[in-house]
Predict the structure.
Amino acid sequence: MGIEVRNLTKSFGNTLALDNVNININEKQIYGLLGNNGAGKTTLLNIITNRLYPDSGKVLIDGEQVLDNDRVLGRVFMVGEKNLYPEGMRVKKAFEITKLFYPNFDIQYANELARRFELDTRKKITALSTGYASIFRIILALSVNTPYLLLDEPVLGLDAQHRDMFYKLLIEKYSENPCTIIFSTHLIQEAANLINHVLIIKNGCIIRDMPCEELLEGGYTVSGPAALVDNYISGLKVLSVNSLGGLKTACIHGKAEQSDLPPGLEISSMGLQDYFISLMNEEESK
Amino acid sequence: MNTMNVRPAFTYKFREIIKGIAVFYGIMVAILTGVIYLAYINLSNNNTTTSNFSAFMVAAANTLFVIGIVTIREDIRLMMQNGIGRRTIFITELLLTLSISLILAVAGELLIAIGQAITANWQGIFITDIYQLIYTYESNYKMSFLQHLESIAFAFSIYVCATLAGMLISLIFYRLSKIGTIIVAVGSPLFLFIILPITLKRSGAGYLLRSVLMAVFQFIHSSPWAFIFCSLLATIFISIFSWLLMRRAPVKPAK
């Protein structure tokens, strides 16, 4: 069970947005869908939820095709960057409407979250600021209780405090009631602790699809005085290098050998964001 | 296996539209009451001014046409956000159009019948509707039960066609590119108000077109059932075209 994406291709005019994408999304895991702007993240999520039609290929959820299948679509909830609720509809009404379509939508919890995020439920959705519009969508996502939750840039325009609140609530929700979450974001560093499995997409192709831990085990970071770092990394496969004053940090592909480490250098595990940036640089240099 | 979830979609839409329909009906009741009251005052003062109320069906068709234009895009967005596929949305729109049209056709007929019953023996007031004006010119002011039923069927066919026509126009503009939108927006009135009248005045193809149109008008004028038949054909054509536009429509947020 889970989501199966098979040979998905989608073009917009001359732009190839997705190029023969194949992925398996397992149940009850949090997937991070990472990629630069225009990589195809939103297109992929829109096709999974049947908001867009692919040129070829198919999407199966729990073994069933999604195309015009309400039973399957009713098991998925996606919050995108844009509002799809009618202009003029108030937040409170939107909660009631969502409950009508998703019987497991918890209105009480949604109202409680609205209180915690200080979102006025009497306000019209279109009158909300960018940040509060994100909060509105986040509340819908956290209260809907579907087996599959797709979050496309959910923290767009949110301040640091509210982002932190959201990450905590998402983890809380996931711990209480595990579901499959696909999380697309540019704030990789912040979301890194949430993600079990990483999907990296570039120019419509999935270039990495593996558990986060496994991915990060494939490299490490070495930092210290520039001259020492330069000396240490010569001959190694360097993913990326950052300099600040006389200090340098390099991401290295492979396993670190503590015994080989000269004094004055420090080794730490590689962050997801570092890995992502170095991978993108590597891909661009090809 | 049934993969359609029509019930919540229909419930939501029905609740939304019935409010608008109730407001429209309330306004019509108020206007009719006003017309009857004015006629009563005129009658009391021996004033010979004639009052007329015959626009319910036209007003209702216009209202439904506008509802068709306004709501379809909103419905696609909202329902796709909430796990409802395009096929269900389309079926829901059809069921809703049929339900609302029937309710409005019956309610409108009831209003006219009550108005006619109240003013049956009054001078200087005519409460009628399009059906009566076109098809019952030889009968009495008050209609028979069968004529009322026929009028309901006539109104129903107009309302269904008007709502779906509004929906179709909205879908055409929803699917068209910017350039396509401009071409249709400029081309439609250009064709209807300039090219078509000029063509109709010409001989040859113009004469042929004129003859066909005249034959169609004569046919629909011959009996309400001829009109209903033509409406049904138009409804089927509009529905098929609408579905073709909708079945692969991308979900675009409101601008």
About this structure: Chain A has two domains: 3-211, 219-269. The interface with chain B takes residues 46, 49-53, 64, 67-78, 80, 82-87, 97-98, 100-102, 146 of chain A (CB under 8 Å). The longest helix of chain A spans residues 160-176. The mean pLDDT of chain A is 92.
